[in-house]
Write a structure and sequence with these properties.
Blueprint (H helix, E strand, L loop, with lengths): L1 E6 L7 E6 L14 E4 L19 H10 L7 E5 L3 H8 L10 H9 L7 H19 L9 E6 L1 H12 L6 E5 L10 H8 L7 E7 L8 H13 L8 E6 L6 H7 L1 H7 L5
Parallel strand pairs: 3-4, 3-5, 5-6, 6-7, 7-8
Antiparallel strand pairs: 1-2, 2-4
């Protein structure tokens, strides 16, 4: 895995970025690979990097899928978060334009200011992705560029797909933290969900701890998805995992499911 400390940016505070390469990357010099961008990079690969002491171990899940012939190799880019800035960087900004200015000013004042998500996505699309595409043998087109995260990372993944539909072809949103945008996300999605003919979305949630809060809004989001022409089991999945909680080990247990969905070359 290649690690870039203090990756520079004109949009956000520099942070660490990890780039995981498939086992055959060096031995197949003519092969090009799809790319999956992930948030909370310190929790993606190794427990030693994670403040919680647990990680998704996403690379191991992908290697098992590859060995079973269930998906193709891919490059995974893990973008580390900065705890003091994470909530503002991952909270979608534009949905708050659907309420009055006094209302959104009151809400964002309690968070320390307007969300920084537009700047964070500008970093990914204008600085990080061009670097990855120039440095590594990627397939840079929309169909082969996907994005995934959990909790607030689920929100920013959905926002990325909506704001940059020409760049991202699919997003996976695990345990999406809907309370951070409750009351504003539905009208935004009605206006900004990308074309169901060219995009795919995965949602899931558990029933324990924080995840127990998510079903009501997820149900309404699902209705918007259906109204936008998305078809369950084809270009859209929403799954409930009874008993699953809001922790890295819970996402580790099921990450193979969104990976298979995101990297399905037949989609």
């Amino acid at each position: 895995m290649d690690r870039y400390d203090d990756f520079p940016s004109s949009h956000i505070v520099p942070r660490r970025v990890d780039v995981w390469l498939p086992r055959d990357y060096a031995s197949e010099p003519d092969r090009r690979y799809p790319v999956l961008y992930m948030h909370d990079g310190q929790n993606c690969f190794n427990a030693d990097d994670s403040p919680s002491g647990a990680a998704w171990e996403v690379q191991r899940a992908l290697e098992r899928l590859i060995a079973a012939g269930e998906t193709e190799p891919a490059i995974i880019v893990g973008i580390w978060s900065i705890n003091s800035r994470r909530y503002r960087e991952y909270r979608p900004a534009r949905p708050f334009l659907y309420i009055s200015e006094p209302a959104w000013r009151r809400i964002t004042a309690g968070l320390g200011g307007w969300p920084l998500s537009d700047a964070y996505l500008a970093f990914i699309t204008e600085e990080l992705k061009p670097f990855v595409d120039s440095r590594y043998r990627t397939r840079p087109d929309r169909a082969n560029t996907t994005i995934m995260g959990s909790s607030m990372g689920g929100l920013i993944s959905l926002y990325a797909l909506c704001e940059y539909p020409a760049i991202f072809g699919a997003a996976a949103c695990l345990s999406t933290h809907w309370p951070a945008v409750e009351g504003v996300i539905l009208p935004y999605l009605r206006d900004h969900l990308p074309d169901s003919a060219t995009h795919r979305l995965y949602f899931d949630f558990g029933t324990a701890t924080l995840d127990a809060l998510y079903r009501p809004v997820q149900t309404r989001v699902d209705a918007v998805m259906a109204g936008a022409g998305y078809t369950p089991g084809e270009n859209w999945i929403t799954r409930e995992f009874p008993g699953a909680a809001h922790f890295e080990t819970d996402w580790q247990k099921r990450v193979h499911i969104p990976l298979r969905f995101l990297l399905d070359s037949s989609s």
